[in-house]
Write a structure and sequence with these properties.
This protein is mainly α and about 190 residues long. Helix content is about 65%, strand content about 0%. The chain is built from 9 helices and no strands. Helix 8 runs antiparallel to helix 9. The longest helix is centred in the middle third of the chain and has 25 residues. The radius of gyration is 21 Å and the shape is globular.
């Protein structure tokens, strides 16, 4: 290939790669084969328990979402009476996300739609967070809850992917600052 055409192809390859990044990229459950290999069973054995890779994926996401919801509810139920409930909820969310990076990515960084009721008790936690978000915006606690989730998600996602950065504060310190900043914006 002549040098000029090679340079043109390089530019075309770069442009197409950039265009492909206009769409979210796949985040996937480990393959059925890799799971079977880790369990030291034949891939066909997996199909006895999960008819398809989609069924396995759904079961994984349901289990991980349930674990996250239970962790946050436990943190809220067990919190000291003098602590801030929003800070506790946020910290539990951040802690869970940072300690379950692959599951967190599948749940919240995948382009796949997340069913509204990923786990049967998920809506209960959502309602509880919306109720607590009234401390941020009493007139529109649902929007405040979405805003809180956005900052908690950003905190988890950036710390999972930018591990080389010096953040200058712990995730717990960042959570407290973010929750308090949102509360003061409204006043």
């Amino acid at each position: 290939m002549p040098k000029q055409e090679s340079r043109d192809l390089r530019a075309v390859l770069l442009q197409k790669a950039i265009e492909l990044l206009a769409e979210p990229q796949a985040v996937a459950v480990p393959s059925l084969r890799s799971i079977a290999r880790a369990c030291e069973v034949a891939p066909s054995a997996v199909y006895w328990h999960f008819p398809s890779e989609a069924d396995l994926r759904s079961a994984v996401l349901d289990a991980e979402y349930s674990d996250m919801v239970e962790s946050i509810e436990r943190a809220l139920d067990d919190r000291p009476s003098d602590s801030d409930a929003l800070e506790e909820a946020g910290q539990a969310y951040v802690d869970w996300g940072l300690s379950h990076p692959g599951a967190y990515q599948l749940l919240f960084e995948s382009a796949d739609p997340l069913p509204e009721t990923r786990a049967e008790h998920g809506p209960r936690l959502q309602n509880r967070i919306v109720e607590l978000a009234g401390a941020v915006d009493a007139d529109d606690p649902f929007s405040a809850a979405l805003l809180l989730w956005t900052v908690w998600h950003g905190l988890v996602s950036l710390r999972l992917h930018k591990t080389e950065w010096n953040w200058g504060m712990t995730p717990a310190q960042a959570n407290v600052r973010l929750v308090n900043a949102l509360k003061t914006v409204r006043s």
